Amino acid sequence: MATATKVVKQRAKEFNFSWEGRDKGGKIVKGEMRAGGVNIVLSTLRRQGVMQAKVKKQSTRGGRKITDKDITIFARQMATMMKSGVPLLQSFDIVAKGHSNPSMTKLLNDIRGDIETGSSMSQAFRKYPLYFNALFCNLIAAGEQAGILDTLLDRLATYMEKTQAIKSKVKGALFYPTAVIVVAFIIVAVIMIWVVPAFKQVFTSFGADLPGPTLVVIAVSDFFVKYWYVVFFGVGAALYFTVQSWRRSIKFRHTMDRWLLRMPVFGELIRKATIARWTRTLATMFAAGVPLVEALDSVGGASGNQVYVEATKKIQMQVSTGSSLTASMQEANVFPNMVTQMTAIGEESGSLDHMLGKVADFYEAEVDEMVKALSSLMEPVIMVVLGVIIGGLVVAMYLPIFKLGSVV
To answer: Rg of the chain's alpha carbons, rounded to an integer?
Structure first.
């Protein structure tokens, strides 16, 4: 145990080095090596017959954050190479050296080092839960145990690509209205702080009573001018509080997720995307031979919605006590009738993974159609909303000018 700990500590201090030298025939050769220091690289190269070597430590700074997309691409590359018969460690080398993100390269080299010292692939991945979730590790473990790692890597890559596509479509649908709201807020704030006060000075010289809409706009402008820091810092603080509460409070996340599911139009989109991820995850794990109760451990978290996480925990508890999956899903009351009926057919026919995959395909297609429809609908709606807001401000400011003739 002490020896294993010592090996891990030594490996944690290893770095990437690039080297250039001459072989026994005088030919210039280049390469990369991971080692604990320059002297180790030089001694290794001498044993390999490389002379006059120049060694340079590679900097890992500047590496961007590792994203879900990076992990998805890694899974697909590994699946492709292993299906082609490339050895595991060599596959890691090829992917690591070919990656444009130094952070990802370092991660893959660390995992390769763990595997090289005797850890299984799933154990090596479990050391990095920030990048490889329980579902990823469980599928890799199932593939190692059954001797079908290449097949399960391919299935895992397909699953990740589909879930990544669903997330991108939902984010894309929500990004446009959010961006417009932010821009509209900034424009209104600029008008209230700089434009309306200039009109107010002109109106004061009229010596006449101002229309009601104009008085309302001026009152709001006065508040913005006097308490602009409260408005901007208040909005910033509210956003910061929301993000932090979302990350740290399960109760807050559950409340927000439930509210999101009840939103008009967008709520239905989020619900369909969640069901697509839920059924796709369960289908993938069940097809890989993971027992149903154990598979449900990862399914809830993969859905991305706290309402479905809690519903999955209840389903798992009931399934573990002998209830059928269909009955448990019906009792959870978060799945449409079509989903439970397809699940029942799958259980009765012994093709649960196939039926759940069909459900996932259906809801992914539904999300595609909803995103296309929303993209067409949102543009005119947003134009109308902006027109009402900006047009209302303009009309309110010009109403007193219409009265100018009567005053004169």
So the answer is: 30
Are 149 and 143 in contact by the 8 Å Cβ rule? The answer is: yes
> What tokens does 268 get?
């239905």
Are β-strands 51-57 and 28-35 bridged in parallel, bridged antiparallel, or unpaired?
Answer: unpaired
Average pLDDT rounded to a whole number, residues 27-42: 76
Q: Is 247 helix (H, G, I), strand (E, B) or coil?
A: helix
- Identity (one letter) of the amino acid at 227? Y
Q: Which DSSP category does 37 fall into?
A: S
Is residue 198's pLDDT more than 90?
no
DSSP 304: T
Tell me the CB-side half-sphere exposure of residue 57, using CA atoms within 13 A: 12
| 90, two tokens | 């060599």
Once rounded to an integer, what is the mean pLDDT over residues 321-337? 93
**H or E element: which one contains 226?**
helix 212-226
SS3 26: coil
Q: Are 346 and 355 in contact (CB under 8 A)?
A: yes
Contact 357, 280 (CB under 8 A): yes
N-terminal to C-terminal alpha carbon distance within the chain? 96
d(CA 382, CA 279): 34
Three-point CA angle 94, 100, 102, nearest 5°: 90
- DSSP sequence for 145-184: HHT-HHHHHHHHHHHHHHHHHHHHHHHHHHHHHHHHHHHH
19/155 Cα distance (integer angstroms): 38
- Is residue 274 within 8 Å of residue 282, measured between CB atoms? no
Instruction: Let me know: does 294 contact 138? Beta carbons within 8 Å.
Output: yes
pLDDT in tens, 43-64: 888 888 888 788 877 665 556 7
Of 291, 300, 306, 295, nearest to 258 (Cα)?
A: 306
